[in-house]
Description:
Elements: E1 8-12, E2 15-21, E3 27-34, H1 37-52, H2 64-77, H3 83-97, H4 107-119, H5 124-143, H6 167-174, H7 179-191, H8 195-199, E4 206-207, E5 210-213, E6 224-226, H9 232-248, E7 263-266, E8 269-272, H10 277-287
Antiparallel strand pairs: 1-2, 2-3, 4-5, 5-6, 7-8
Amino acid sequence: xxxxxxxxxxxxxxxxxxxxxxxxxxxxxxxxxxxxxxxxxxxxxxxxxxxxxxxxxxxxxxxxxxxxxxxxxxxxxxxxxxxxxxxxxxxxxxxxxxxxxxxxxxxxxxxxxxxxxxxxxxxxxxxxxxxxxxxxxxxxxxxxxxxxxxxxxxxxxxxxxxxxxxxxxxxxxxxxxxxxxxxxxxxxxxxxxxxxxxxxxxxxxxxxxxxxxxxxxxxxxxxxxxxxxxxxxxxxxxxxxxxxxxxxxxxxxxxxxxxxxxxxxxxxxxxxxxxxxxxxxxxxxxxxxxxxxxxxxxxxx
Length: 301
């Protein structure tokens, strides 16, 4: 068996990686960025010589800031959505990992970050997203042979929506809405679409008895088709909005911005401010005197 002080090399994809130990006995890994084994061995000997003379060759390897820069540039270069959320996630990651070298961010460190964020009351879905962003940064670094990706802890998320409106419950709510808002609520109730997908629907997407949302325009990014001609009640809602549009001579879609209410409880069941529950939130806001809502609704949704 080779002594620890001799270090070792191993192959990852087409390049050779170095593993050696600092004077404190801690393992250090870095990519040689070399495809030839003999060249990698020569570099390993050079690194061992630097360690023996008290130098710190690992100071040249990737840091957390480098990882953050990699994923930020990737989002910008590819026009990815969610750049604002990425910046927010990196803020919390930076608060914990600022000054860390990428080789020091291992499973134990990632698990400690997860525990700290959970203790602060952060939702599991948020923690999973933040760790996912860091995993993506490591993947980019590994692709460029700059670092190895550590094993990440798994975060279980149980965010299935609970509670559903029965017809009589929705009818009871409708009694407190103006006719225009009854239409948008009926549309959301009958289709089950998230509220922003409903509000962003434009007339040119309503064709030949089908509602169509193009890929990239929905909350999930997937396209969506709904054959409303097979649903008389939904067809009646769209017909009413079309008639109102003609009445107002609207040449472009008008969207209503509802008051922002985070959540509302109905008979002991909590709903987030998305999809049909947003209509309930709106009703609750109106009951408290929230203003700023247009009095007309010329859009079909």
